[in-house]
Amino acid sequence: MLSNTVFAILLCHALGRASAAVSGLQHLFSNPDHISAAYHIPTVHESAVQARRILSLANIATLSTVFPSASNAPCSDFENRPEGLAGAPIGLIEYYASCGPNLHDPTILAVTIATSFKNARAGSNITLSLRYHPPADHAPSEDPYTYSPANLPRFSLIGHIEPLSKKEVKEHGIMSCFLASHPDAKAWTPGNEIHESRWVRLVVEKVYWFGGFGDRAYIGWIPVEVYRAVTAEEVNKARLVGEKGWMEKSWKEPYEASRTDGSGVWEAI
To answer: Rounded to an integer, what is the distance from CA 110 to the centroid of its chain?
Structure first.
């Protein structure tokens, strides 16, 4: 049997190792309080550019809403909705596209009978969540975490649904823009014989960004005015991890800014 002294030594050693391990992992999901000058965590603006880049590259996201109370939105017997769902969230994938004059507000083809839009009409808050998928032919990386899904950027756009007028749809070529990303959606565009539908936009009011591990990426809220102010030039110039033209650099080294005013984004210079 171990003596009390030996047991105490072993216990202290084990606790020390555990503490070190926790210390090394504590910034995976939050930003550290103090950053060394040798480290570069993207600024809020740089993160906003990355978010807008992802928004322009992707075209499918998860639309989350909350079920209303039965008194606020009684459902038909045809739906056969279980009881007790009031206040429960539900997330379903949804097609979207960056169309129209406000590219920061995603355009959505809303099918009236769909659960997400019924919840929205009953007053539900709405969140559209996106994640970045590197190209399948991305360059290899020596860092095992470079392409880890846990370390890749994702974000949520919080806002409300706003219908597009017929004038807006026509003037900005909403249908052709949307169908360029989703040609199969032609079957349920407005006026189809299957389901009632309409063109809407998600008016973004708040943006929550999770850029990756907290010791190398920004995690937190992006002011909506910063998100909206990102230019098309910045979106087109930015390169995300794995994209052609992206150059891997050590996250322990400062990244050069792609703009002289210091508001650049991570990319090959």
So the answer is: 20
pTM over 0.85: no
Amino acid making up residue 30: S
Encoding tokens for residue 258? 């792609």
pLDDT band at 238 (very low <50, low <70, confident <90, very high): very high
Q: Could you tell me how far CA 188 lies from the centroid of its own chain?
A: 26
211-236: average pLDDT: 94
- Residues 68 and 117 sit within 8 Å (Cβ to Cβ): no
Q: Which residue has the tokens 């539908």?
A: 197
**Residue 88 half-sphere exposure toward CB, CA atoms < 13 A:** 9
Instruction: Supply the Cα-derived Rg of the chain in whole angstroms.
Output: 23
> So what's the pLDDT on residue 120?
95
More confident residue, 175 or 36: 175
Length of the chain (residues)? 269
Contact 124, 68 (CB under 8 A): yes
Angle at 10 between CA 6 and CA 11, to 5 degrees: 115
pLDDT in tens, 15-61: 444 444 444 444 555 665 655 554 578 999 999 999 999 999 999 99
